[in-house]
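job 3f2a | input accepted
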Amino acid sequence: MGNRILYALAVRVLIAVFTRTFFQPDEYFQALEPAHHLVFGYGSLTWEWLNPLPIRSIIYPALNIPIYWMLKVTGLHSIRFWGDWLVIICPRILHGVLAAGTDIWLCKITSKVMGQRYVSTAFFLSLTSFFHALSLSRSLSNSFETTLTTIALSYFPWGACQTRSPQTPFYESDIRKCLTFAALACIIRPTSTVIWVFLFANLLWSSRAHRGFVLSLVMNAVVIGSTALSLVIFLDYLYYGQITFAPVNFFIINLSGVSLFYGGNPWHYYLTQALPILCTTSLPFVLYGMWTQVNGIDPAKRTLCRVIIWTIAIYSSMGHKEWRFIHPVLPLMHVLGAKVLVDLSDKSPKQKISSLPIRRDYFSMLLIPIPIALYVTLLYCSAPVAVLSYIRSIPSDELKGGSVGFLMPCHSTPGHAYIHRSELASGGMWALGCEPPLEYQPNLSTYRDQTTIFFSSPYDYLQDRFPSTVNPNFPLSPYPVSIPGTSVHFSGQWRHEWPRHLVFFGALLEKDGVKNMLLAKKYQEVWHGGRSWEGDGEERQGGVRVWKWRG
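job 3f2a | predicted structure (551 res):
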């Protein structure tokens, strides 16, 4: 087990440190930016934090606060290059260490449910997982939720059933540990309750003949749940300055339909898109394991299969879907896949490799996603992150006033936590907004945010909302970004001054009149990164460009 811990830590920290690509805005704006804002006094806070009913708790970003605070009090953050490197790398190392918990405690789940002989294969599946490489070591709340859920599942009494005393397969201390980590997962991501409602409802029903145990379980759940909720309310009170029920607000806002503002997906999204992405070449083994175990005689394996099905079914009923939402059940899929791989390999013992109890052809098949994982973590869409290195290299005297403007779809790059220049605070840097309509219930098919309005006609936006000439003093823009609740009726308020630097995707230059207008204003390209075909959608293609005023 000791070697596995070292392997897990090494793999996850290395992935965290060397990741160079952009995956999800939440990695920055729901984790690093609030912590950077709290410690250093500036950062990009999104509507989730500024809304009268904030839906984000400070508890997850707070993990980064001690790191930023230490860099601040020691003065290390202010050392150019090295300080910038530490501000970026130290949180990455932290989240790499946290990610390793998924690999480590997966071994315990596998041993508990399937048996010790399957552990090494499950561990191998976890370490070589494409989606783990893409997402697990990033500062995403879903990733930490995955780790906490995996730890909690390792203490869950999988084998409990009504025909056997529940005290036989586990101890009460394990139940408390399970409840504790499950509660933490739920306050980090309130939707984690989907998993635990099923598991504990199933446990209560299976153990209904043992009233003493049921009563103990309920009492422990109430005490631990209340303690966790009190913790999050206390921390949010310190952060917001008022009593705030962020988990409750999260459900209220999302049930109002706001989540659909970020896109809807068909009911089969998780079956046809997410599962192939999460499991890649292990998917056939996972599906076969589900088919053979979901109605099997072993209660542990049966429960494991059913919680996966339940979770995917519940998330499939929701309008807005993302791969990462079902990330917490991926370790359970690895457990199922490991059993099938080993059992099938037992039928051909001569074809097994020496290091794992699986066939050589299976082993080779599982290695296929590794080059793809390297590509998506090191190269694909790296320019939105790399461009901030150029921004950090801008001399301090050029950062005064309105220095940088991002004409990109909202949240296309990291924010202040990856730039760390106080000169750009208080309006020195702006980006287009995309706040949802929170103050009323509009028709989402007709509602248009600032980003949508800009890209519907970039030339007209630049012509109407920017001055006719560039002011060489680069004053701050009077009203450059949207605010929570802004509707199309108030969009006329957006007014900009031309900044010294403009950052945008190359596709913008293909829009009618835009390139000629920028050249006429005496802007010239000073930095270009990325590949023209990369990006999610036409507006994010063409690589990232930085144009600077050369008047």
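job 3f2a | Confidence is low (pLDDT under 50) at residues 485-489.
job 3f2a | closed
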